[in-house]
Task: structure prediction
Amino acid sequence: MATWPVQLPAKPLMEGNQETLPDLVIRTQMTTGPAKVRRRFTAGVRPGHYEHYMTKTQLDYFIAFFEQTCEGGALPFDYTHPVFATVESFRFVGQPAWTMVSKTHYRVAFDFEVMP
Result:
């Protein structure tokens, strides 16, 4: 399995990042009264969004990692979770995007899911 490259920032920016617990239940709305809720899965993906501050060289490396190593987001990669400090399996969701911050620096954003 691919691993997050050491050439890229190890941790995302603090602002603009989020992660959500997996939705493991199914809700059925009743005609009257409260909805019925039951557990549907024992494990699920945790969706999230990270942003990294990168140089032009790092951005080039990131693009190659996404397009070639992860085959455009089809393959997962190991990444050290910035909060829990555990190595987990991540997978890109959708296409990463970046914004130029200065002549040599970019803010790179991507959505992901942490695999169970």
